[in-house]
Amino acid sequence: MISLERVTKRYGEDAVAVAELSFTVDDGELCVLVGPSGCGKTTTLRMINRLIEPSGGRILIDGTDVASLDPVTLRRGIGYVIQQGGLFPHRRVADNVATVPRLLGWDRSRVERRVHELLELVGLDPRRYGSRYPHELSGGERQRVGVARALGGDPPVLLMDEPFGAVDPVTRQHLQQQLLELQRELHKTIVFVTHDIEEAAMLGDRIVVLSQGGVLEQHDTPAEVLGRPATPFVADFVGADRGVRRLGVVSIGVDDLFHPPVVTPETSMTEARRRAASAESRWAVVVDRDERLVGWVDLDPPRSGCVSDHLVRFEIQVPMGASLRAALGEMLQHDVRWLPVVDGERYLGVLTPNALHAAMRRSVGGRPAVPEGLE
Question: Model confidence over 180-211: pLDDT tens digits?
C-alpha cells in the first residue's frame, strides 16, 4: 500500500508544485494520476521513489516512511518506466533487463532465467531480441523492454510516467492492453501518470485528478469520475462527452439482460409460438441442450415444422463482463438492436439498447427512463 499524507513540494517561496496532497493506493491497485500539464503528476510520482524530495508531508509504502530508507535501496525495490523505456543505448536488450537483478547480486544463471522469463512475459522472443540494441527496436518494442526492465527484481511497486505517450495510437492501444493483461497476472501496485483521461479510464482501478499546483480534485473509480465529476474542474477536464467515454468503463451485468423465450432446434414452431405468446414476444432464442447459443427464430408470420427449419444464426455475440462501449460498437457495426450475451459457451440473455441505457443510468444511481426489453 502507498499512502501520501499531506505531501507538498515547493520550489522557492511562491512556486507550489504539489499542495498538501493526500491519497492511498491499495495493494495490487493500478492508480492513474491525470491532469493538465504542470499539475504535479510527475513530481508526485518522483517523490514516491525520492527522485524528488518533498518539502512537507509523508509518503508511506507498507507503513514505512520512504524518507527513512536509503534512496538507492528504495529505488531498487520500485520499478520505474518512462517514455521510450529509458533504456541504456549502449547495452543490449538482455543487459538492460538484467540491470536490477545484477545490482541485487543475483548469480548469473538466475539473472539469465529472469531475463528470459521477463522478455517472454512482455511478448518478445529472448533469442530474437536479447542481443539487439535499443536503436534496433521499434518504439513499442522499446517500451516493452522498459516494462521488462522495471520488473527485473520483481518489485511490488511500479511507477510509470506517461510510458505510452511517444508511440502511435495503434501501438499505444496494444501496449495498454498488454499492461492490463500483465496486471491481471502479476497484481503489482502501480502508479501511472498520463494526461489522457481516456487512457486513465481504460487502465485505472482508481483515478486521481489533479489541477494546477497539485491540488486533488477527485480520487475515485473511472466510472465515478466520468459519471459524477466531483468539481467543475473535473467536469471540464473529462469533457462534455464523458457519458460516451463512460461506456468503456461500465461492464455488462446479469441484471442488464433481457430474457426472451428460449427454445431448442427440435422444438416445434407451434410450441415456440405458444411460449412466445405468453412472453409477448415475436421471436425466440435457440439454444442446444447444453444451453449453448445456436441462433434465433422469427415466429411471425406463423410457419410449420421445427425451429431448426427456420433457424437464423446470430451475426455476433459478446461475453459477460464486456464493456457497454464494446457492446454498442457491435450493435452499430452489425446494425442489430439486440446482442446475445454468453459466459464461455453458455447463453445468458440478450442486451438491448434500452437495457444498455438503463445500465448506464443505474451505474450512477439513476433509474431507467423507459422499461427494458425489446421495442
Answer: 888 988 999 999 999 988 889 889 999 999 99
The total number of structural domains in the chain stands at: 2
Secondary structure (3-state) at 253: coil
Is the domain of 135 the same as that of 282? no
Tell me how long the chain is.
Answer: 375
Residue-wise pLDDT for 316-339, tens only, equals 889 988 888 888 888 888 888 889
Find the CATH number of the domain harbouring 348.
Answer: 3.10.580.10
HEC readout, 3-62: EEEEEEEEECCCEEEEEEEEEEECCCCEEEEECCCCCCHHHHHHHHCCCCCCCEEEEEEC
Contact 29, 190 (CB under 8 A): yes
Full domain range(s) for residue 113: 2-249
The predicted-structure confidence for 207-266, as pLDDT tens digits, reads as follows 999 999 899 999 999 988 988 899 999 999 988 677 677 777 778 888 888 888 999 999
d(CA 226, CA 249): 9
Instruction: Indicate if 269 and 192 belong to the same structural domain.
Output: no
Q: Are 289 and 266 in contact (CB under 8 A)?
A: no
Alpha-carbon gap, residue 189 to 157, rounded angstroms: 5
Q: What pTM was computed for the model? A: 0.74
Judged by DSSP in three states, 66 sits in: helix
Judged by DSSP in three states, 139 sits in: helix
What is the sign, positive or negative, of the torsion defined by CA atoms of 216, 18, 190, 131? Answer: positive
